[in-house]
Design goal:
Length: about 210
């Protein structure tokens, strides 16, 4: 009787996390923390403009949706424990009750959306899908979480807060362009960076490539 159970390599995304996955999660959490070292420019005295969302975009696109989200959740957990990993050396539970709290939570959701779009259908990333993922997940989703919370904390009307948040858009678009360029460079130069995504899909069976004999 022929077994119908697929080989373990046929479903690489279903494997348990291993040491390499955890190391990659830690590396991208560290990258986002390092991007916060230069500090940020305060926008209207509330939410700082930082380079850290560039790291969020790269995490979602390179690690994929779930590991990308895990890396952001790991970073935020360390921040909640008091580590000064946010821009300007901010840390502690107070970061999650301030005007920027929604943006921080949006990093997790943004990484998921970026990963899902960039690796849609477990396909190799292409520039337009990568750029779309950066814009949708790295900007729209993060803002969708950040603006309402900022409005609530600052007690400004939602429409006024949304208008003020437009100051972030040019910088975030630049970061999306940079992130897209980095991802596409890695696709060509080092595809193994995309572990557990399209780079580990099993090769087609030889039988599929052989024409039937009449």
């Amino acid at each position: 009787m022929t077994s119908t159970t697929p080989p373990p390599s046929a479903h690489p995304a279903r494997r348990r996390l291993d040491a390499t996955d955890l190391a990659r999660v830690a590396v991208f959490a560290a990258i986002v923390a390092v991007l916060g070292l230069p500090g940020g420019i305060s926008a209207f005295g509330s939410v700082p403009i930082t380079a850290q969302t560039l790291g969020v975009m790269l995490a979602g696109a390179i690690l994929g949706p779930w590991l990308g989200a895990l890396s952001m959740a790991t970073l935020l957990a360390l921040v909640a424990l008091g580590l000064p990993l946010l821009s300007g050396g901010r840390g502690g539970i107070g970061a999650f009750v301030g005007p920027s709290a929604g943006y921080l939570i949006g990093w997790i959701a943004g990484a998921i959306v970026i990963g899902l779009i960039v690796h849609a259908g477990r396909r190799k990333p292409v520039w337009w899908r990568t750029a779309l993922g950066m814009l949708a997940g790295g900007i729209l989703v993060v803002y969708a979480f950040g603006v309402p919370v900022q409005s609530l904390v600052t007690r400004l009307p939602l429409d006024s807060t949304a208008a003020l948040s437009l100051v972030f858009v040019p910088g975030d678009v630049v970061k999306a362009v940079i992130a897209t360029a980095i991802v596409m460079t890695l696709v060509r130069a080092y595809p193994r960076a995309f572990r557990r995504s399209w780079a580990l899909q099993p090769s087609p069976s030889p039988e599929r490539d052989v024409a039937p004999v009449a």
